[in-house]
Amino acid sequence: MAGKAISTIWLWAIALVIGLGAIQDSDAALDPNDEYILVSGGPALRAWENYRRAEHQHDRWWGNFIRAARIRVQQLQKTTNKQINITWLVYRPGYVTRASEDGDPLISNIESVRDKYNIRLVWFDKSGDVINYLNNGQNRKQVKVSGFEYFGHSNKYCFVYDYSNIILGASRAFMHQSQLRNIKKGVFARGAYCKSWGCHSAESFCAAFRRATGAKMIGAIGKTDYSHIYRGTMPIVSPGGRWAQ
After folding, report:
1. What is Dmax (Cα atoms) for the chain?
2. What contacts 24+ positions apart, CB below 8 Å, involve 179-182?
3. Which of 27, 35, 64, 143 is a Cys-bridge partner for 226, taking CB atoms 3.0 to 4.6 Å apart?
4. What is the pTM of this model?
């Protein structure tokens, strides 16, 4: 029991350091006229995940990528005294199917986060929608993207918005690194803070993102762990992994 307690304390310490680091790195000099974009992918369905061994299952709780974004909104608003323009993009089809499976009003739950924190919520439902929003969601000559953070499933080459939701272990809605060239030049503000909170992004995707946009992206080498976010902590990198660019 003592060993388990020490392990829990250590995870909390890591999460606190990561959270503080994210705040210090990204929030110090944000222009309130620019736009800070958070993206939440969708959850897997239990109907598919129950075919896996327990240790390999995903998303026992539907809200991993929603709660993590909510925590980040709280951090950003606190450190900027709410002088920040946050837009939250959420992959709607994933929550519609999971709501049907769980029998819970997940769409209303997500909209309640929007209302509580007075942020802009934009639902999306196709692979190209996030890039389209980056390019055209605002007049990018006037409103640059000062931050971009992703919460969801990913692999080294893709953000996968509907992983294991329609097809077991696969995705039909995604942002592949080959699509990043479709992001227009000049979308991101100088020094924009970009981070993927998904698995494996720093193993290829982050470098491709920088080549395409000129903006550095932090991501994980290895897997990320969302299992402690119900305590109010940001996701951490699983043992053996690390954050990198």
Report:
1. 57
2. 179/127, 179/128, 179/131, 180/131, 180/208, 180/209, 180/211, 180/212, 180/213, 181/212, 182/128, 182/131, 182/135
3. 64
4. 0.87
